[in-house]
């Protein structure tokens, strides 16, 4: 069994996977030495074969398992060598991943939702592509009323019977809410609205938030308290002063426009005190005709509504002066005015901290 032992020695001494493969071919390949010996069994007489047969088979087994073991050992060595050179240096500082930030409009909407949730208001939604009935007619704005032109509405061509418009305010959500169930209702409706307007303080798309409370004995006092509470929480100041001016909206009676007082602090105009006034929202007691249009009895149900510009509130609170920059998509602007996405506003932690 000389050549058998030689092969086993050679396998033990092999130092690469290709050497192992060469030895496999030399021993077990078609014309390998072990294969030749297996073939020679056929030519032997029975007595010799009885002796040689088991020896040759044992040799083949021994060579096969030696090859397998050597191959595994060499592969292991290779892996260990690779691991040694590819070691990860955990002490290196991590590469910074670019992070986005929350747009001031989203932040302010979150703040407002938080404030009103605390006052027991639910959030309601309506479509941005509205029909004329919800946007105007049901709100007591008749066909001929100048408000329909005044609003500079984007009408959607085509559909004549129920003409579609891009909603000009969030007030149609009042109608959708009142028609959706039974009072009492206490909702806010934030969202995008559209008017054909464009300058430093007007963009064709902007954001409003509507408020609606309908119950049995709601009066102007509730309206005033709610607005005062919300504006003080939003601007995070106790010295927010409101001024209610008589006004006119077709869907409220009486109607009031609401101004907040401002003063100059460190050369900047801030909300609080009352050196001057600026208008922040429209409001009033929901017109009985609007309540009736929604199928409710205005002798039984009454309430108040208000609407305010979210973008304007954001500008006032965070000191931005050009509304157009809100929607330019300029990364430098959002990096400057944006909010950390983990900075979730809550009343208990202080809003907008
Ligand atoms: N919808 C009015 C506007 O867009 C605001 C408003 C809402 C006024 C609710 C009164 C009541 O100007």
Feature tags:
353 residues; alpha+beta; three-stranded antiparallel β-sheet; 12 helices; 22% strand; elongated; binds phenylalanine
Could you explain the architecture of this structure?
This protein has helices at residues 2-13, 17-28, 33-40, 46-85, 104-118, 132-135, 146-150, 172-178, 220-235, 288-293, 310-318, 331-337; strands spanning 122-123, 129-131, 155-156, 164-166, 185-194, 205-215, 242-249, 252-265, 268-271, 276-286, 302-309. Helix content is 40%, strand content 22%. The protein has 353 residues and is of the alpha+beta class. The longest helix has 40 residues, at 46-85. Strand 3 (155-156) and strand 4 (164-166) form a beta hairpin. Strands 1, 5, 6, 7, 8, 9, 10 and 11 form an 8-stranded mixed beta sheet that branches. Strands 2-4-3 form a 3-stranded antiparallel beta sheet. Helix 1 runs parallel beside helix 4 (46-85), helix 2 (17-28) packs antiparallel against helix 4 and helix 5 packs across helix 11 (310-318). Phenylalanine binds next to strand 10 and strand 11.
Condensed summary:
Strand 8 and strand 9 form a beta hairpin. 40% of the residues lie in helices and 22% in strands. It has helices spanning 2-13, 17-28, 33-40, 46-85, 104-118, 132-135, 146-150, 172-178, 220-235, 288-293, 310-318, 331-337; strands at 122-123, 129-131, 155-156, 164-166, 185-194, 205-215, 242-249, 252-265, 268-271, 276-286, 302-309.
Radius of gyration: 41 Å
Sheet/helix structural class: alpha+beta
Number of strands: 11
Bound molecules: phenylalanine
In which range does the helix fraction lie? 25-40%
Number of helices: 12
Largest sheet at a glance?
A: 8 strands, mixed
